[in-house]
């Protein structure tokens, strides 16, 4: 039996995904956390905690390095809210192109008896443009960016994409009519709209700043539905004053961009739809179960992605530093206890490695001693045994 502790409101569809081998919120020393936006950066983790799964894309609310040091695997659920973000970006693209926000404000302010005549006289103030034929630059062609690009094509737009880290799987999702370029400058220089969809890390903070905005054409509309800090908001404000940027839409407010009729701020609702919350919860629940029951690390952010068929009675997993002779030390401890290795897999991600060993000769008598010995190795973060289900 495994214990899962949830934070925030996890959709019932996700909770219903767990099998009878999982208990929910029955202890403060669980095997897994299933979270959304709770801030864990200063949290103390219980000793038994083996995994933290975020039902969402970003893990900025999780201290990943600290979790790794404690042998805790951290996961996200990429793609679960991609359609929700795509639809919001496309809707805002239409709204800004057609000046809908200003038009709505006008209509609410003018409700007098002669409103029809006045409207006929004033409505040309809100003349907008159509999206068909306009150019859209998509910076980041992952789960969200690829969907935005394809949707824009369906609206008759011309789409330019930039993503130096595009994976082979992501590339398959992108319509071949998206023109890919090798720099932000080439992507934005002729674009009427620019939208940013990249993860937040040291390499993407300030990705769109004064220099990149200078490369854009005058009157561009800019969208940031990735994370705060990826677009330099101070540079945006300056560009709006000079009319370099016509409109800016973002999901992340801060004082410097407040109270401007050229800036639309949504309250971090990009992925907040009933469908996205359900998708993330279900994907998160499956991720918890796959890791705890099989050691599967698909979509893990601090361990290499590994998915190995589990056919033996026991599986030993070891999270450890990516240094020489670790596999040798681990296998020696098994050999010393006459534990035969039926299958072994090992992979690394930066400074962290993950080893999976399958065996039929492990038993209760040698299990506890083996795991204790492996955990005593200085470079090991956590070793555990998984018993085959069924």
UniProtKB/TrEMBL annotation:
Claim: Lipid biosynthesis is one of the keywords in the record: no
UniProt keyword terms in alphabetical order: NAD, Oxidoreductase
One Pfam family linked to the record: 2-Hacid_dh_C
Ranges of residues in domain ACT: 315-390
EC number(s) recorded for this UniProt protein: 1.1.1.399, 1.1.1.95
Enzyme class: oxidoreductase
GO molecular function: NAD binding; phosphoglycerate dehydrogenase activity
Catalytic activity: (R)-2-hydroxyglutarate + NAD(+) = 2-oxoglutarate + NADH + H(+); (2R)-3-phosphoglycerate + NAD(+) = 3-phosphooxypyruvate + NADH + H(+)
Function description: Catalyzes the reversible oxidation of 3-phospho-D-glycerate to 3-phosphonooxypyruvate, the first step of the phosphorylated L-serine biosynthesis pathway. Also catalyzes the reversible oxidation of 2-hydroxyglutarate to 2-oxoglutarate.
PANTHER family documented for this protein: FORMATE DEHYDROGENASE 1 (PTHR42938), HYDROXYPYRUVATE REDUCTASE (PTHR42938:SF47)
Protein name as annotated: D-3-phosphoglycerate dehydrogenase
Species annotation: Companilactobacillus mindensis DSM 14500
């Amino acid at each position: 039996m495994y214990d899962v502790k949830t934070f925030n409101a996890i959709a019932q569809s996700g909770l219903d995904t767990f099998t009878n081998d999982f208990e929910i919120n029955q202890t403060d020393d669980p095997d897994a956390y299933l979270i959304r936006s709770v801030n864990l950066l200063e949290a103390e983790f219980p000793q038994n905690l083996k995994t933290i799964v975020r039902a969402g894309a970003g893990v900025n609310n999780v201290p990943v390095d600290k979790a790794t040091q404690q042998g805790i695997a951290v996961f996200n659920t990429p793609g679960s809210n991609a359609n929700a973000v795509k639809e919001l970006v496309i809707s805002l693209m239409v709204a800004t192109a057609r000046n809908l926000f200003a038009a709505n404000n006008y209509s609410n302010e003018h409700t007098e008896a002669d409103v029809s005549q006045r409207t006929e006289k004033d409505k040309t103030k809100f003349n907008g443009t159509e999206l068909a034929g306009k150019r859209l630059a998509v910076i980041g062609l992952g789960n969200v960016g690829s969907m935005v690009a394809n949707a824009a094509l369906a609206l008759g737009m011309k789409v330019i994409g930039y993503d130096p880290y595009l994976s082979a799987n992501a590339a398959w999702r992108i319509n071949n009519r998206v023109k890919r370029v090798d720099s932000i400058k080439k992507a934005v220089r002729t674009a009427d709209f620019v939208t940013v969809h990249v993860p937040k890390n040291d390499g993407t903070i300030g990705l769109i700043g004064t220099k990149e905005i200078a490369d854009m054409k005058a009157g561009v509309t800019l969208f940031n539905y990735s994370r705060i800090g990826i677009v330099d908001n101070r540079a945006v404000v300056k560009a709006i004053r000079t009319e370099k940027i016509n409109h800016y839409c973002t999901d992340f407010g801060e004082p410097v961009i407040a109270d401007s009729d050229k800036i639309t701020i949504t309250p971090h609702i990009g992925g907040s739809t009933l469908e996205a919350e359900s998708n993330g919860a279900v994907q998160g629940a499956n991720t918890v179960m796959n890791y705890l029951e099989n050691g599967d690390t698909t979509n893990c952010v601090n361990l290499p992605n590994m998915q190995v068929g589990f056919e033996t009675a026991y599986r030993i997993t070891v999270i450890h530093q990516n240094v020489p002779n670790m596999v040798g030390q681990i296998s020696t401890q098994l050999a010393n206890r006459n534990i035969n290795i039926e299958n072994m897999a090992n992979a690394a991600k930066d400074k962290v490695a993950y080893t999976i060993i399958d065996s039929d000769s492990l038993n209760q008598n040698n299990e506890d001693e083996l795991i204790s010995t492996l955990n005593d190795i200085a470079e090991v973060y956590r070793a555990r045994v998984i018993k085959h289900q069924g």
